[in-house]
Cation diffusion facilitator family transporter
Amino acid sequence: MSGGHGHGGGHAGGRHRWRLAVAFALVGGFFGVELVAGVLSQSLALLSDAGHMAADVVTLGAALVATRIATRPDSTGRRTFGSYRAEVFASGLAVLLMIGVAVYIGVEAVSRIGTEAEVASGTMLVVGTIGLVINVICIFLLRGGAGESLNVKGAYLEVIADTLGSVGVIAAALLVSATGSAVWDTVIALAIAVFVLVRAVMLGREVLAVLGQHAPAGIEPTEMLAALENVDGVSGVHDLHVWTLTSGMDVATAHLVTEAGDPEQVLAAARAVLHDQFAIAHATLQVETTRDRQCLGVNW
């Protein structure tokens, strides 16, 4: 028996897809401008922020794709879980990209020690200001959907983080202009690189937790087990598994043992507990009676 099989309904991310599309176009377009400006001005701060923005482009693109494939029917009949994990794989790509950018900036900064690079502070200031304006626009765009969709919320938080990078570029431009020393460009570039690296590690841990099918953050399997055991008619629970399929979509399976009562009522009550107390999007539950001599599941 199974519960919570509804895959249909309105997709929250889909309703705000236009917000993601506009943000993706703005950030993607500016990424190219910032990358070229960073190379021409020899500004590490601009290059490091461009690398961070490249990760934003990947994240926004993944969110945009995820809203499309989340409701796309599987034509092969083999993707029994759908294609929801595409977002997770794209996030893993963003992690690798962010780590690569951080390492490159670190190596480049070390190589500049003892030398005095010519940094065009005026270009830095103009590009940094434009980047700040674009990020603020994207923040207001995505804020409207961040409260409904975790997918949109992830993109929203990425843009907020990149806004700090734009502020760093502006600060570096002003310091270089005021002191005439390019060392400030290197110092702030390293600060941005460390920030990007820390965020990459944090995001990487989340990706590995999903791929490793760990219990979702904020859910304690022991608490879920106790809640199911307290359902009327349930005398025992075993083979409980809970994991994250993709952002905002937690799933669970369990075997419920009952001594008496209507199995359908037990199933409905257990499903309600998982949905209301633990926000489980999909649950597969099997009801067994004490008359069963052994577990009705296959060996594993």
Remarks:
- Residues 111 and 278 are 51 Å apart (CA to CA).
- The two ends are 19 Å apart (CA to CA).
- Confidence is low (pLDDT under 50) at residues 1-11.
